[in-house]
């Protein structure tokens, strides 16, 4: 399999968890490189559903080493809960999970700040998960953050945490929020630190040793291209680099060790939170929600839904250097007579073939559609490319061509078996 970066080509929630799980069969190591527990990867194995937030999806396959890289921000208490939950489900965690000693920590004051800032923004809110991810990355950028290496050093951690609680309590009081108890936070995080200590390691060195052994490494992305802090629809973005470059900075493995980039995209478009979504459509949203689809794995929020946006995915192909595409949720369109695809934007009298960086301009963009005939028949039982309806194959080839990358995988359901290699 070689070293593979997997990214989302849209606004996140593209079904990366399932595709990562499928690709992990050929991997030795799976590395999570950015984001925090604001991400949620859902994987179905048989009748069992697993929702992962910080632990890489590779944990669900035996014999795979999973790594939480330096680019991730870790809520230690939530991570312990996740590990314990997996253990109760019979998933082995001890011995096959490593956490970077330089990964930054998320604290209760980050979550409080996240919520208070959203309240202050009012109608201009970002629509964050309020998990404290943005404020934690803010501390990292300001060089005032605490890391895993601090958490497992008890005397140092106590001293640093006292300073941080004191400082942030002043900010919280100014915002009208209740101050935090140092004693309670310290006790909870010390307990989490003791539980996580055996997992903490210099993961950069471990990954380079694995690369020298020619191990196959899969770099697991969270969120999607248009939530990237640099390349997304700013300010309606997350606080990390969700594009392919983030896999290098978030793991310490350089670009010349990467072999391919696989991007995951739905056969339509969805978005959680605020911000532009040019192809948003009530008809398709109602259809998908009625099917029980498109609710966030982390928050349970109903996702906004729209037709496939080829302008956005072309942009994603350019930014990420996408080699192969995995198209998911093909079966979500099974009942439609006609299917629309956005192939350009109209902004005033101008036609745009790219995503504008000016959010006000982007908000005014009107999609230019091309229509395709629907296949109006179930695809969930298809296991090979030739088993798909001709119209479904034509549609998939068209959206891959419009995106500008090679179609490699089509997914017609959540289980491992419902995966077609093209």
Explain the overall architecture.
The chain is an alpha/beta fold and 422 residues long. It folds into three domains: 4-101 and 200-261, Adenylosuccinate Synthetase, subunit A, domain 1 (Adenylosuccinate Synthetase, Chain A, domain 1), CATH 3.40.440.10; 104-196, Adenylosuccinate Synthetase, subunit A, domain 2, CATH 1.10.300; 265-421, Adenylosuccinate Synthetase, subunit A, domain 3 (Adenylosuccinate Synthetase, Chain A, domain 3, Alpha-Beta Complex). The protein is 33% helix and 21% strand. It contains 13 helices and 20 strands. It has helices at 16-23, 76-88, 108-121, 133-141, 148-151, 154-174, 182-196, 203-212, 244-249, 282-290, 310-320, 359-363, 390-403; strands at residues 4-8, 29-32, 41-45, 48-52, 65-68, 73-74, 97-100, 104-105, 200-201, 217-220, 260-266, 269-271, 304-306, 308-309, 324-328, 338-347, 350-352, 366-373, 406-411, 419-421. The strands form five sheets. The chain has a ten-stranded mixed sheet with strand order 9-7-5-2-10-1-11-15-19-20, with helices on both faces. Strands 14, 16, 17 and 18 form a four-stranded mixed sheet that branches. The protein has a two-stranded antiparallel sheet with strand order 3-4. A hairpin with a 2-residue loop joins strand 3 (41-45) and strand 4. Helix 2 packs across helix 7 (182-196) and helix 3 runs parallel beside helix 6 (154-174).
Q: What class do helices, strands and sheet pairing give?
A: alpha/beta
Shape: globular
Q: Over the alpha carbons, how many angstroms does the gyration radius reach?
A: 21 Å
Per CATH, the architecture of the largest domain is 3-Layer(aba) Sandwich
């Amino acid at each position: 399999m070689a070293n593979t970066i997997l990214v989302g080509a849209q606004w996140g929630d593209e079904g990366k968890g399932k595709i990562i799980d499928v690709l992990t069969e050929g991997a030795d190591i799976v590395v999570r490189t950015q984001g925090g527990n604001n991400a949620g990867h859902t994987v179905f194995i048989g009748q069992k559903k697993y929702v992962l937030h910080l632990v890489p999806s590779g944990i669900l396959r035996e014999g795979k080493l999973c790594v939480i890289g330096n680019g991730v921000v870790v809520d230690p208490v939530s991570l312990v809960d996740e590990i314990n939950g997996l253990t109760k489900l019979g998933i082995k965690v001890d011995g096959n999970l490593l956490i970077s000693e330089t990964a930054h920590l998320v604290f209760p004051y980050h979550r409080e700040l996240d919520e208070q800032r959203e309240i202050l923004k009012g109608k201009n809110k970002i629509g964050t998960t309020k998990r404290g991810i943005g404020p934690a990355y803010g501390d990292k950028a300001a060089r005032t953050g605490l890391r895993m290496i601090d958490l497992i050093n008890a005397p140092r951690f106590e001293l640093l945490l006292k300073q941080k609680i004191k400082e942030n309590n002043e900010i919280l009081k100014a915002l009208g929020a209740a101050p935090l108890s140092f004693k309670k936070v310290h006790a909870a995080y010390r307990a989490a630190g003791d539980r996580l200590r055996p997992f903490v390691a210099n993961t950069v060195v471990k990954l380079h040793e694995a690369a020298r052994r020619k191990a196959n490494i899969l770099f697991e992305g969270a969120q999607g291209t248009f939530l990237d802090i640099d390349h997304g629809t700013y300010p309606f973005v997350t606080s990390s680099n969700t594009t392919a470059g983030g896999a290098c900075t978030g793991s310490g493995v350089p670009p010349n060790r990467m072999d391919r980039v696989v991007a995951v995209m739905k056969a339509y478009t969805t978005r959680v939170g605020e911000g532009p979504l040019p192809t948003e459509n009530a008809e398709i949203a109602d259809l998908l929600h009625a099917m029980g689809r498109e609710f966030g794995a982390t928050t349970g929020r109903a996702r906004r839904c729209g037709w496939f946006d080829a302008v956005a995915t072309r942009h994603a192909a350019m930014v990420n250097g996408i080699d192969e595409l995995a198209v998911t949720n093909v079966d979500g369109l099974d009942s439609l007579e006609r299917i629309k695809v956005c192939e350009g934007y109209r902004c005033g009298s101008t036609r745009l073939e790219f995503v504008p960086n000016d959010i006000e301009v982007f908000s005014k963009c009107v999609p230019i559609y091309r229509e395709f005939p629907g296949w109006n028949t179930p695809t969930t039982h298809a296991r090979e490319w030739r088993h798909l309806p001709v119209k479904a194959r034509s549609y998939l080839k068209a959206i891959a061509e419009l995106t500008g990358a090679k179609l490699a995988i089509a997914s017609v359901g959540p289980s491992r078996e419902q995966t077609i290699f093209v």
